[in-house]
Amino acid sequence: MKVMPIECKAGTSGKMKSLRLFMRNKHLNDAYRCSLENFSILENQDVQDDNAVRRIAINPLYAISNLCK
Fold first, then answer.
1. Looking at beta carbons, which pairs linking 16-19 to residues 24 or more positions away fall under 8 Å?
2. pLDDT in tens, 22-58
3. Which of 9, 13, 5 minimizes the C-alpha distance to 61?
4. What does the DSSP assignment read for the chain?
5. Are the C-beta atoms of 10 and 35 separated by less than 8 Å?
6. CA-wise closest residue to 19 among 35, 2, 38
7. Average pLDDT, integer, range 2-20
8. What is the dihedral of CA 21, 5, 33, 19, to 10 degrees?
């Protein structure tokens, strides 16, 4: 079993600063965000952590049950 951080937001805006900082401090590469946005995946290189590639999967709030699958 792998533990992954999850951020839940009520709206569609936000920079996910705390989620990105948590991922950097714990050296995690994958996370989830649940919000009113559509399905998507964000990938970026963290230049402050040896160019580690961070992936954040975005799921709409109505599809939060899909996280277990």
1. 16/56, 19/56
2. 999 999 999 999 999 999 999 999 998 889 999 999 9
3. 9
4. -----EEE-SSS----HHHHHHHHHHT--EEEEEESSPSEEEEEEEGGGTTEEEEEEEEEGGGGGGGG-
5. yes
6. 35
7. 86
8. -10
- Contact present, 60 and 38 (Cβ < 8 Å): yes
Q: Which residue from 26, 11, 21, 24 is spatially nearest to 58, judged by alpha carbons?
A: 11
* pLDDT at position 13 over 80: no
Which residue do the tokens 């709206």 mark?
11
Q: Tell me the pTM.
A: 0.84
